[in-house]
Amino acid sequence: MKTLIFFHLPVIDTRSGGYYFFVFYLLAFSTAITVFVFSCKRHRIPFRTILLMVGAGVIFFILGNKLFAISPAGWGRVFTDPDSCCNEGRTVLGGIAGLGAALFVCGKWLGLKNVLSDRLALALPLGMIVARAGCLMAGCCFGMPTSLPWGIRYGAASAAFASQLHCGLVSISDVASLPVHPVPVYEMIACALIALVVWITRRFWKASGSRLVFTVLLYGTARFFLEFFRDPFGDKFAGVEFLGIKYVQWAVLSVTVLLGLFLWIRERKVVDPSTVRLTVIQTGDARYISLAVFLLVLFTAAGT
User: Fold this and answer.
1) Mean pLDDT to the nearest integer, 20-35
2) Which residue in 118, 204, 263, 298 could disulfide with 211, CB within 3.0 to 4.6 Å?
3) Are 85 and 77 in contact (CB under 8 A)?
């Protein structure tokens, strides 16, 4: 990142953005996995269960990250041209959905009950703080133009510059974009606050799994409002507006409302929190081996 002296705004050169994106996402996975494993070991969850869950979580997160970013037109050629349609972009919302699928698959197949969900409640926002640093350097989640003093500028090779050039806000001779909202920084702050709130309220929730649901609900709420600062060009088809709100915001709002209802209902069902226990049902080796084989095949087939 090149910073101009004194009162000039920082200019982020995205020509090496792909490298920084990759590095920070590796660090994000490492951070989330470390927090998750530490939490699991504190609750004496078997190591092979932790190992399989980590593998399933990473694979399903990457798959969800890709699949939920495919446009409606892209789904039309998913079988004829899978390489192009699966490289249209990434979305962390799909990654979170993938994590939910991983929890469901592992829980059902290994006979896990009330074990893994809440172990992700802190790991998820902490990992996303690191990941968004990669988004900041890559310039993929850039914001709308702003006159606020903390605005940032991207170089002429960035998507932000291309968006502003398309809208006639900059000319081809300019070396950087107009100042934009640092949306990834906003999201890093939001995720830090989410982690803090989740930690403070960790003993408030009665039902197992509610802590993770609360985490996702908070992130969905933050993401809904942050989208007002994000340039629609960066959201591609999900940035198209309907009734003044982007498609992605409608989706996030719907899921957040449903999660809120789900959280309220399941909390009301638990009268005595002391009856909720972490339980690992003893499962034969065959189920662990078969799940490991399935994940290996899925990993190979998906090219993750």
Assistant:
1) 91
2) 118
3) yes
Helix (H) or strand (E) holding 112: strand 112-113
Inter-residue contact 107 to 82 (CB < 8 Å): no
Match 């809440």 to its residue by tokens.
Answer: 118
No. of H helices and E strands in the chain?
Answer: 12, 6
Average pLDDT value for residue range 56-65: 83
Cα–Cα distance between 293 and 271 in angstroms, integer?
A: 40
3-class DSSP assignment, residue 67: helix
DSSP states of 192-248:
HHHHHHHHHTTTT--STTHHHHHHHHHHHHHHHHHTTTB-HHHHGGGG-EETTEEHH
**pLDDT value at position 278?**
53
284 three-state secondary structure: coil
Q: Which tokens hold the place of 236? A: 């591609």
Report how far apart, in Å, the C-alpha atoms of 212 and of each of 49, 96, 100, 114, 121 are.
19, 11, 10, 12, 4
pLDDT value for 224:
93
Distance CA 235, CA 254 (A): 18
**Spatial CA neighbour of 23 closest among 150, 180, 154, 135:** 135
Mean pLDDT value across the chain: 81
- Copy the structure tokens of residue 199: 């930690």
SS3 for 54?
A: helix
The DSSP line for 153-170 is EEBTTSHHHHHHHHTTSS
Q: If you search the block for the tokens 């509610």, which residue do you land on?
A: 210
